[in-house]
């Protein structure tokens, strides 16, 4: 499943550059995650880097975008193929 950023976000700018899929962007008030690009770092790292680095722990799994490990891996492959 994709991740999401909650209202506790302090806009520290740590998560955006850590995202290997460029899924994180500045929204109207806080950073947001594009679920179409978020693979929870599957294919890149063992742990979602944004959640790992977040100083306020405001990046949980997004219950609105449930995906299996296999689906995340397939999404990762589509993203990589599109960049080629």
Topology summary:
Layout: H1 15-18, E1 24-26, E2 31-33, H2 49-53, H3 69-83
Antiparallel strand pairs: 1-2
Overall description:
The protein is α+β, with helices and mostly antiparallel strands and 84 residues long. The protein has a single domain, classed as Alpha-Beta Plaits (2-Layer Sandwich), CATH 3.30.70.20. Strands 1-2 form a two-stranded antiparallel sheet. Strand 1 and strand 2 form a beta hairpin. The longest helix has 15 residues. InterPro entries: 4Fe4S_Fe-S-bd (IPR017896), 4Fe4S_Fe_S_CS (IPR017900), YfhL-like (IPR047927). This is YfhL family 4Fe-4S dicluster ferredoxin.
**Percent of residues in beta strands:** 5-15%
What's the CATH topology name?
Alpha-Beta Plaits
DSSP helix count? 3
Write out the strand line-up for the largest beta sheet, numbering strands in chain order: 1-2
- What spatial form do the alpha-carbon principal axes imply? globular
Number of domains: 1
The biggest beta sheet is recorded as: 2 strands, antiparallel
CATH class: Alpha Beta
| Poorly predicted ranges | none
Write the H/E string, N to C. HEEHH
CATH architecture term? 2-Layer Sandwich
């Amino acid at each position: 499943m994709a991740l999401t950023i909650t209202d506790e976000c302090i806009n520290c700018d740590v998560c955006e550059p850590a995202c290997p899929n460029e899924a994180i962007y500045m929204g109207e008030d806080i950073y947001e995650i594009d679920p179409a690009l978020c693979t929870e770092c599957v294919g890149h790292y063992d742990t979602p880097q944004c959640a790992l680095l977040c100083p306020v722990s405001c990046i949980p799994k997004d219950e609105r975008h449930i995906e299996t490990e296999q689906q995340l891996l397939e999404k990762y492959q589509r993203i990589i193929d599109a960049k080629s």
